[in-house]
Design a protein that fits this description.
This protein is of the alpha/beta class and 257 residues long. It is built from 9 helices and 10 strands.
Length: 257
């Protein structure tokens, strides 16, 4: 991973006029975002606002209009954007005989995982897991991991390819309070020490307020974006999250968001 003493500030990622339409339904329209490395960018909004759809579009999983560009502002050249991704949930069948090492080694190397372990690769993977306090999980079967353990392993896997952008689609769903605190502290560490931008979909407005540098309030388009103060004190935020509407963001609509 490209470790640095502080965020470089030279790289930026832009989403320009992004739109998504399913048949006759317009799900996202004219979404514009601008993010720098070393920043935690939280996307918030009610169910059905298009948050997960935005992530899928950025990954190239669904057709969309508009474009996403990565610009190195030191020389102005547009470069290839590498993206790391952690989904909301992963289905792993019970008794699947794959260890954490096996899963990460198969992603990192063409070396067959059924052959004796590569000591060099083993230590490299362990180093990535250590960032997320998960090095003790390296020999455990993936199917036996708890939700919080699997989340930490997936985060380690997501940064192995040294991404410029880390996309996190509500990765703390179902995690207890201690796990939440560890997760956000780790995000804070990543954005301060590594050369990447983080986009996080989150329903936990308190943690967003505590850790986010930039907040985007989405409802099929960007209603407002800016600092926590700018967004949380806006009329748009009050309208979306007013008293009596808390249930709109407590639980993600997995099917349509």
């Amino acid at each position: 991973m490209r470790k640095i003493i502080s965020p470089c500030g030279f790289h930026c990622i832009k989403v320009n006029h992004l739109g998504v339409r399913f048949n006759d339904q317009e799900v996202l329209t004219d979404v514009n975002l601008h993010m720098h490395c070393g920043s935690l960018n939280a996307i918030i909004g009610k169910n059905g606002a298009g948050k997960s759809t935005l992530i899928r579009a950025m990954l190239g999983d669904i057709p969309h209009t508009g474009d996403i560009e990565f610009r190195d502002t030191k020389d102005g050249k547009i470069q290839h954007l590498k993206i790391g991704y952690v989904p909301q949930s992963v289905n792993i069948e019970k008794n699947t005989p794959v260890s954490v090492y096996d899963m990460m080694a198969s992603y990192e190397s063409h070396y067959p995982v059924f052959l004796p372990k590569s000591k060099k690769l083993y230590e490299k993977i362990k180093g990535h897991l250590r960032i997320f306090e998960a090095e003790d999980l390296i020999d455990k079967q993936v199917c036996n991991l708890s939700g919080g353990q699997l989340q930490r392993v997936l985060l380690a896997l997501a940064i192995m390819d040294e991404p410029n952008l880390l996309l996190l689609d509500e990765p703390v769903s179902g995690i207890d309070q201690n796990g939440m605190e560890l997760f956000f502290q780790t995000m804070d560490y990543l954005k301060k020490h590594y050369d990447l931008a983080i986009i996080l979909i989150s329903h936990d407005l308190d943690y967003v307020a505590k850790y986010a540098d930039h907040v985007v309030l989405l409802d099929k388009t960007v209603l407002i974006q800016g600092s926590v103060k700018e967004v949380y004190e806006s009329p748009a935020f009050e309208k979306i999250f007013s008293v009596g509407k808390e249930e709109t963001w407590i639980k993600e609509d997995e099917e349509h968001d």
